[in-house]
Amino acid sequence: MNQYIHDLAEKLWHYHHLNHTLEKADAILVLCSYDTRVAERGARLFLEGWAPLLIFSGGLGVITRSMWTEPEADQFARIAMELGVPAEHILIENQSTNTGENVQFTRQLLAERNLSPETFIVVQKPYMERRSYVTFRKVWPEKHVIVTSPQATFDEYLSEYSNPDLPPDAVISIMVGDLQRIRLYPTKGFQIPQEIPDDVWAAYETLVEAGYDKHLVRD
Fold it and tell me: Please, what is the Cα angle at 96 between 90 and 126, to 5 degrees?
């Protein structure tokens, strides 16, 4: 990856970040994926006392169904327990395949358990903070939510955090696809709208032209 592409991708990275300040909550909701560092982040937050309940949500999505056979949430929960989170403080939702289902199916699971957390800390990959937030706000608007992620710079994430089966170019393509969804999905009823600055969208268009288009929504 040359420096020009790197800088364009980093612009998207910063836009996807929300930089929310952590607040104590009723539940930590970890949105699972290929990135097991997200599981570690959720477990650490629980162990630090930010919330008394830790929920893992994720079956096998577009990316992980070609990598794994065990649902994401089961793998993430096992990581949390290995780090010291008691099993009785963990809930697992392992049927969802996208962000909207993560929230919807978690809502159903909590209702079945007669649990009604009012405040959530959502944990996700760094470049999916914004998309997770706008999806949660659309699907479950009456709840208060803040979003966090593994604490890493763009370069640290590409070199240390991301799954070894996904090279940096693949991660950039995923970021590009997520930005497209932030623009498209409000009209489909999947997310609340977000303003996208002109320079961020211009970076997106240049990256698409450069071939980082593998995760775009195709009409």
Answer: 75
pLDDT in tens, 22-48: 999 999 999 998 888 999 999 999 999
Q: Retrieve residue 82's tokens.
A: 């290995």
- Count of CB atoms situated within 10 Å of the CB of 169: 16
CB neighbourhood size of 202 (10 A): 12
Q: Is 112 helix (H, G, I), strand (E, B) or coil?
A: helix
pLDDT digits (tens, 9 = 90+) for 104-123: 999 999 999 999 999 999 99
In eight-state DSSP terms, residue 79 is H
pTM of the model: 0.92
Residue environment code for 107-116, b if the CB has 16+ CB neighbours within 10 A, otherwise e: bebbeeeeee
Q: Which domains are delineated in the chain?
A: 3-14+154-209 (no CATH), 18-148 (3.40.50.620)
Give the pairing of strands 144-148 and 119-123: parallel
> CA-to-CA distance for 85 and 82, rounded, in angstroms?
7
